[in-house]
Amino acid sequence: MKNISATLAIVWRIAAPYFRSEDKWVGRGLLAAVIAIELALVAIDVLVNQWQNRFYSALQNSDWDAFVTQIWIFIGLAFTAIALAVYKLYLNQWLQIRWRQWLTQHYLREWLDGSTHYRMQLKGDAADNPDQRITDDVKNFVEQTLTIGLGLLSSIVTLFSFVIILWGLSNAAPLHLFGTDLMIPGYLCWGALIYAIFGTALTHWIGAPLVNLNFEQQRYEADFRFNLVRVRENSEQIALLKGEGAERGGLFRRFGFVIGNWYAIMSRTKRLTAFTASYQQAAVIFPYVLVAPAFFAKKIQLGDMMQTASAFSSVQGALSFFVVAYRALAEWRAIVARLDGFEMSVASAAHPPTHEPTIGLAPSGSTTAIALKQLLVKLPNGAPLVAADAFTIQPAERVLVTGPSGSGKSTLFRAIAGVWPFGTGTIAIPGKSKLMMLPQRPYFPIGPLGDAVIYPAEHGAVASEKIRDALIAVGMPKLAERLDEDGHWNRTLSLGEQQRLGLARALLHVPDYLFLDEATASLDEPSEARLYRLLAEKLPQATIVSIGHRSTLDAFHTRKVALVKDGEIHVLGKDGEPAQAEPTVAS
Ligand SMILES: Nc1ncnc2c1ncn2[C@@H]1O[C@H](COP(=O)(O)OP(=O)(O)OP(=O)(O)O)[C@@H](O)[C@H]1O
């Protein structure tokens, strides 16, 4: 019971915001319409049930006129039911797509906001495969919530409508046992209730493991798909390393989990279906068994018996909602748990718990320098990595950061960029200054080359002429003619070419602070020197901080600081300390 109320609270938390959003009037209107149709369909069922009594009585009495009248009534009811069924589906689908659109956009905004997606990945917590949660899980949540919610509503209304009818019929057709009439008020209702309780309890007992199995199935399917995408993305590496065998093995193993779990679902579903099918079959005959003695004792007419059977099956059907919908409910609970995990994970990445110390980022209007104060950058597992205290980078300075591989240079950059939360201390960044990070392998979205270069600016934000000039300046005149060409640039360009495009991006964005994390490491030394001179010429006001291992980089920086090992951690050289190598001013 506690589980059910907890699940319902989560469903409410996920579902309700749409009906309070800017699209609320459309959402509420459509929901009201589908609920109204659902109720109208129950009303039609009640009318058909009453019609059955009149129809079978007309047959039993060989009353032709009554028979014809009932046929006309049936035609009217049937047409109404058809129209309602059509609009029930149409409006339901309409509501589904509006709701899904809002929820997907909402999740995309939350997930992509302020590097949350990256921090979620770093934390490696509950939300595996966010792509699947935003696609399949949102779609299925909306669809199943409506189906299950409306099914439940319809069952409750059906139950109340038919319980009244069945109660009346119980009195009209008393329980006739061993030649005597037993007067048990509403005995048919009690019969249906006992039958449904027994069915629901057994269904839950047999089907409970399905919730977990469905949860795991979704996870295995998503893992398998994600790994296929990874193979596609890294196909060149795999082909060069002849890694197909290893990939095949890995994919077979992951697909093995999908299959193994599926067999477990199959076997559980088989047992559940064997029970629910028997239960439903028995439900067909059960009401006749109850009222047949009264019919054969001529206490009731054929019409009464048929109406009773139909009313009983409606009541029993409504009470057995959980039996029939159990599989869907198990799937739905798994989806709800997955979306809940996703929301939790987004929330904890976006707003880390206050008791967890994080690196404080203080955009400061007063300072013109970047200042690191008592900074201790840690790994996600809490192990300290890099320390820096009273370290500043002045405007227009050119700083080269060196240090052994794995000492934490890139992680320090991530902390300055504000995406690495693990650690303590503060990083003060001049207010309104524009920071830009260029990694060794720049990212290019798939699409027109021009858009890939100006990323993260949007299409059309930079004039084509400027993009062309930047490409020519970084030594890519041929690409300057292909700005409108669609491509997967991370795949088709060499790493050196990608690094040139990265620098073109920096020229176009004119950052105040440019951080180059081995961003020219794949270029030959003369080209690297040319590009550094170009940066000095085109971005004279910019502060440039580079990470690099080549000694030739010294010439383009005014200060060189090293990460020096101190016990378990590396410490960033303090301000004013002599540089490790002779600094030389950019030529
Ligand atoms: N997301 C992460 N989770 C766990 N450990 C990480 C993560 N990112 C980096 N590390 C660890 O932090 C350490 C420093 O990594 P970092 O990339 O900052 O080093 P680096 O000094 O830039 O190295 P290189 O010169 O080889 O590029 C490494 O030991 C790395 O394994």
UniProtKB/TrEMBL annotation:
PANTHER family, alphabetized: ATP-BINDING CASSETTE, SUB-FAMILY D MEMBER, LYSOSOMAL COBALAMIN TRANSPORTER ABCD4
Molecular function in Gene Ontology: ATP binding
Function: Involved in beta-(1-->2)glucan export. Transmembrane domains (TMD) form a pore in the inner membrane and the ATP-binding domain (NBD) is responsible for energy generation.
UniProt KW Cell membrane keyword: no
Compartments, record wording: Cell membrane
Family the entry assigns: Belongs to the ABC transporter superfamily.
Residue ranges constituting the ABC transmembrane type-1 domain according to the UniProt record: 29-331
Keyword Nucleotide-binding: yes
Protein name according to UniProt: ABC transporter ATP-binding protein/permease
One Pfam family recorded for the sequence: ABC_membrane_2
Taxonomic source organism: Bradyrhizobium barranii
Membrane topology label: Multi-pass membrane protein
